[in-house]
Amino acid sequence: MVKAIRASKPGGLDVMSWDDVEVGAPGKGEVRLKQTAIGVNFIDTYHRAGTYPGSVYPVVLGVEGAGVIEAVGDGVTGFRKGDRVCYALARGSYAEERLIPETALMTIPEGVSDDEAAAGITKGVTVHHLFTRVRPVQKGDFVLYHAAAGGVGLIACQWARAIGVKLIGTASSDDKAKLAKDHGAAEVIVYTRENFVDRVKAITDGAGVVLAIDGVGKSTAKDSAKCLATYGTLCTIGQASGPSDLSVADLPASTNFTKGSIATLVPRPVELRASAAAFFDMVRRGAVKIDINHRFALKDAAKAHAALEGRQTTGSIILKP
Length: 321
What we know:
Blueprint lengths: L1 E6 L8 E6 L8 E11 L1 H8 L9 E2 L3 E9 L11 E4 L9 E5 L3 E3 L6 H21 L7 E4 L5 H13 L2 E6 L2 H9 L4 E4 L5 H8 L5 E6 L6 H5 L2 E9 L19 E4 L9 H16 L7 E6 L3 H9 L6 E5 L1
Parallel strand pairs: 9-10, 9-12, 10-11, 12-13, 13-14, 15-16
Antiparallel strand pairs: 1-2, 1-4, 3-5, 3-7, 3-16, 5-6, 6-8
Helix pairs in contact: 2-3, 2-7
């Protein structure tokens, strides 16, 4: 038996519990992973709350982690006992040990720590996916990114700077705005006192942005659409303020709307590992630094959720088993 954080039913922080769970031996195509660090993402709160259908409760929360392989099942050919690995979007990460399919794993290269991998792999793959597949961006392009001081946002700021993209971020305070600016944002709008649509138009001389990335949802999606350039793309990646009622009628002429999710890469391990390799390359050469600003013991995962939902965090959060 090992310890894990489970949600007993859809709900608030009170449904999270520190439970004994049975892991067992790895089956065909699986490995047993002893986890050294576990990433915390906003999607974890959706799984806890039941925002997304399909969960069977009680459920072990979490989607991201890193660790050392303890045992391999039949048919595993790409990994062996003792390998350092990480994964993104494989549900069940809030546990001391777990079983996971070989296809979900990525090798952690030398020069990248387990903590960096656990805190950054989902976020880094997300940024690569947004900037290369959702909308390939070019040097000199303007991109709008909401919540630029968050975990994905700070990686996006650095990545944009590294490839010459002008990222316009939004943040709720001057301190968060400074953090995003220090990480590479070309401009940061404090949305609590400025109209971000007007500011984006001013910054881009009325042209708008080629890509607007919106993880906020209800309170911003329609206004994000107003920031698009002709042939620009609005990509939603979450709904922190609730589901948006954005419709096709809200889109400016000759623009695109898409839902970005690296879940599309999970059944495509070659693409997933290519994105991971691009991310790790950025980390190893110093173009992207993973800011792990919050660490909690695994048993205190509810405190991590409270801080995340209360918008009290910047950068990345990890849990330590």
